[in-house]
C-alpha cells in the first residue's frame, strides 16, 4: 500500500492516545511496535504530543491528558472532514452532541470532539499541515477503527447522516462503507477492486471502519483501534513483557489472527495479523 498524503472526507485518518504518563506510554509502544517519537509541542508547553513514526512516516501519537480532563488512558479516533465547524453542526442536527467546540491545533489543522447519540466520543479533523497517518495497514501501523455500540440502528442513522456511511455484512462481520473511498483506493492503487474480489471480499475496498454490537453493561460504547502486526502471538507476548495485559488471547478470525491488549496505563487496543487462509473463519455454512 503506498504511503498516504491525506484522505477523503468521511475516512478515519488518525489515532492518538491520551496517557497520564506519556513518556512511559511511548516507551511501551516503542518497544511493542518499533515506533520512534518526536514531541510536536513547542518548548515550554504544559503538555506533550509525541508523534510516533515508522520509517519517518507518521502512524499515531501519544499525548498528555487534555487540560481539565481526567487522567484516563484511552485511544481516540479522528475522521477526516472538509470543515470541522460544519461537522459539529451536522452532529447536533443528527442527534449527537459537541463535547469540544471546533478549535485550531497550531498549523496542523482544526478539530472538534463530537459524540454520537449513544455518547460515544470521536474527533473530526480538518487538515492543514498534518495530513493524518502517512503509513497504514503495515506492521506497527493503524489497520482498523471499530465502533463498539449497543444500538446499531441508531448508529447507522447518525453516521449515515454525518459521513454518508452505509454498511456491508460479509457474513463474518459488519463494516462501515463509503463507495467514494473504494474509488479513491482504486485510483491510488489500480486493481484494488479486483484483488479484494479475488480474496472473496468483494466490496471490502469501500470499507472505512467496522461496527460491533456489544451487549451487557460492563463495556461502555466506544471507538476502538486495531494495529497491524506480523505475528499476533508474538505481539501479545511482547506486550506482557513490557508490562501490558492480554485481555483476549490470540484467536483466529476472518482473514486474520488477532489479540486484544491493554497498555500499562489502561488503554485498550487490538493487534491483528493478516492470514488469508483464515478467510472462512466465522462464516456461516452455505
Q: What's the level 1 CATH class?
A: Alpha Beta
CATH structural architecture: Roll
| Total number of strands | 16
Low-confidence stretches: none
Q: In which range does the helix fraction lie?
A: 10-25%
CATH topology: 2,3-Dihydroxybiphenyl 1,2-Dioxygenase, domain 1
| N-end to C-end Cα span | 33 Å
- H/E element string? EHEEEEHEEEEHEEHHEEHEEE
Query: Pairing-aware structural class of the strands and helices?
Result: alpha+beta
Q: Tell me the domain tally.
A: 1
Query: What value does the average pLDDT take?
Result: 92
Classified in CATH, the superfamily is 2,3-Dihydroxybiphenyl 1,2-Dioxygenase, domain 1
| Largest β sheet strand count, sense and barrel closure | 8 strands, mixed
Tally the helices. Answer: 6
Cα shape: globular
Global Rg: 18 Å
Strand order of the largest sheet: 2-3-4-1-5-8-7-6
The percentage of residues in β strands lies in 35-45%
